[in-house]
């Protein structure tokens, strides 16, 4: 990967692309790469997710602190993936602030505890997925939002919304 991990004064870290192309993304992205913002305080898990998304051609910006994510230009991203339980601000609060700051694209909730979320929280996001789900499921959801006319070749996957997950389907 052509990126680096940066640590800010408050000890939080974020990964940024080094040697960006004119579009601001890594070499090897699609001709017109889709930009994805991932916000998760789990540095290792988020870095792995970012690497997988980059390997299939997406341009990824990782933030490990929701307050750092608020410094982003949300309108410049095609899609966002947020964790729910983060220190200082949860995914719902980040969602509301992102929308107020110009986020227009889908925002997916990816959390380890989607079954404990309120109905209002589950329906707020474009989709929600448990971190225990297969990466193929997440890739399929992202592809459905960003490339609706293309058939993804990420392997077999099954798209399910949070509300259906809670009903046991």
Percent strand equals: 15-25%
Which overall shape is indicated by the principal axes computed on the Cα atoms? globular
| CATH level 4 superfamily | Response regulator
Count the domains.
1
**CATH topology name:** Rossmann fold
The CATH architecture term is 3-Layer(aba) Sandwich
How many angstroms separate the termini? 37 Å
Class by SSE composition? alpha/beta
Radius of gyration: 15 Å
SSE string, helix = H, strand = E? EEEHEHEHEHEHH
List the strand order in the largest sheet. 1-2-4-3-5-6-7
Using DSSP, what is the number of strands? 7
* Major sheet description: 7 strands, mixed
Helix content: 25-40%
Number of helices: 6
The average pLDDT score comes to: 76
**Can you tell me the residue ranges where pLDDT is under 50 for at least 5 consecutive residues?**
1-31, 154-169
Descriptive account of the structure:
With 169 residues, the chain is an alpha/beta fold. The chain has a single domain (28-166), classed as 3-Layer(aba) Sandwich (Rossmann fold). Helix content is 30%, strand content 20%. The chain has 6 helices and 7 strands. The chain has helices at 43-55, 66-69, 91-100, 119-124, 135-146, 162-166, and strands at residues 3-7, 13-17, 35-39, 59-63, 79-82, 107-111, 127-130. β5 (79-82), α3 (91-100) and β6 form a beta-alpha-beta unit. The protein is globular, with a radius of gyration of 15 Å.
What structural keywords apply?
169 residues; alpha/beta; Rossmann fold; seven-stranded mixed β-sheet; 6 helices; 7 strands; 30% helix; 20% strand; globular; disordered N terminus; disordered C terminus
């Amino acid at each position: 990967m052509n990126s680096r991990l940066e640590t800010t004064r408050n000890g939080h870290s974020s990964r940024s692309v080094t040697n960006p192309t004119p579009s601001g993304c890594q070499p090897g992205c699609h001709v017109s790469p889709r930009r994805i913002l991932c916000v998760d305080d789990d540095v290792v898990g988020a870095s792995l997710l970012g690497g997988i998304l980059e390997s299939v051609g997406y341009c990824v910006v990782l933030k490990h602190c929701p307050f750092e994510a608020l410094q982003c230009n949300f309108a410049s991203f095609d899609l966002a993936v947020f964790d729910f339980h983060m220190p200082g601000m949860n995914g719902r609060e980040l969602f509301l602030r992102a929308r107020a700051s110009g986020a227009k694209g889908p925002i997916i909730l990816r959390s380890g505890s989607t079954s404990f979320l309120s109905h209002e929280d589950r329906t707020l996001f474009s989709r929600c997925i448990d971190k225990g789900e297969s990466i193929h499921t997440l890739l399929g959801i992202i592809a459905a939002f960003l490339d609706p006319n293309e058939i993804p070749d990420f392997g077999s996957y099954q798209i399910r919304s949070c509300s259906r997950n809670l009903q046991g389907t």
